[in-house]
Amino acid sequence: MFTPEELLDINTLLTQDSKIVILTHYNPDGDAIGSSLGLKHYLKAKGIHTEVIVPNDFPKFLKWMPEAKKVIIAEYKRKFASDMIAGADVIFCLDFNSPSRIGLLGDWLVKAPGKKILIDHHQQPEKFDFVYSDTVIPATSQMIYHFIEAMNDEQLVNQDMAECLYTGIMTDTGGFRFRSTSATTHRIIANLIEHGADPAMITSNTWDTNTVSRLHLLALVLGRIEVVNDGTVAVLSLTRNELKEFGFQKGDTEGFVNYGLSIAGVKMSAFFMEDLYEDFVKISFRSKDDVDVNQFSRKYFNGGGHINAAGGKSLDTLAGTITNFKEKVKEEGL
After folding, report:
1. Residue 319's CB: how many other CB atoms inside 10 A?
2. Which of 35, 85, 240, 289 could disulfide-link 141, Cβ–Cβ 3.0 to 4.6 Å?
3. CA–CA separation, 147 and 7 (whole Å)
4. H or E segment and range at residue 326
């Protein structure tokens, strides 16, 4: 958490006259949007106006959250987003550890004169004016709740705030499955429910949103799932042509990588997908126990993340990338 002195400084910056923006990472997920909107609703409860800006669009299944449709998508409103960041007095940076993780917003952030406040749970954060970094906490949305507590503002938590933060924690813990989910996490979830978060509604709005195209893609993935390395590693994949054939939309492949971990004996799952427009392969890694996919991805696939959840990228072909992956997991003895 921020030091008491830092909290006082931050509190001084958060005035009703301040121009404040909230930024999150490229390809925003549930925790990115949940934490950003949760913080926005908290500041709104204090009478402070903010704008949430994301580099590119996010999945439809996250757009039910209160004020999600007011999020500024920079790829559609470049000049407006650029001007907002350049003119901000305070810039909250949520769920990313480096300007390089926020796409076209990165250069604007670096050049912006406003105070930059980082709240994030990824490893190896870069320098910001104020840094609250904790890699043990499973979701940035949980960190926003801790920030509200540290500001002695728990009484301001309302239903809008609770729904957004609950969604962020739920999605980034895999439905409270991941090892990083703690007793503290569950206590916060209980508090959010008491403040209006409806678990059944949130789960239905977020996860019970399958389209026919998503189910077709999932059927393809599961139909050729491969288990290697003596049954400890699962490999899943989709080609660009398959994405096009079934009308892929952003978010359709969310969670596919987790199916590999549902196989008995599998400790690591990797999902490989060709980008729809550019020549690279996007990779998602998930793992159990002490299998560190963060270090694995950093070492071999230009990525990173958390011990049990990380992402990567390859400029090789899909087939070449998967072959390379199989060689590396064998070398590492995963």
Report:
1. 12
2. 35
3. 9
4. helix 318-332
Residues in contact with 23: Cβ distance below 8 Å, sequence separation at least 6, in sequence order? 36, 52, 53, 54, 85, 91, 92, 93, 94, 96, 102, 105, 109
pLDDT digits (tens, 9 = 90+) for 78-96: 999 999 999 999 999 999 9
Q: Which amino acid is at 22?
A: I
Q: Cα–Cα distance between 132 and 117 in angstroms, integer?
A: 8
Hey, what amino acid is at 312? G
Those residues whose C-beta lies under 8 Å from the C-beta of residue 196, and which sit 6 or more positions away, are 158, 159, 162, 163
CA–CA dist 315, 278 (Å, integer)? 10
pTM: 0.88
CB contact at 8 A, 34 and 141: yes
How many angstroms separate the CA atoms of 102 and 110, rounded?
11
Question: Dihedral of CA 295/296/302/305: which sign?
Answer: negative
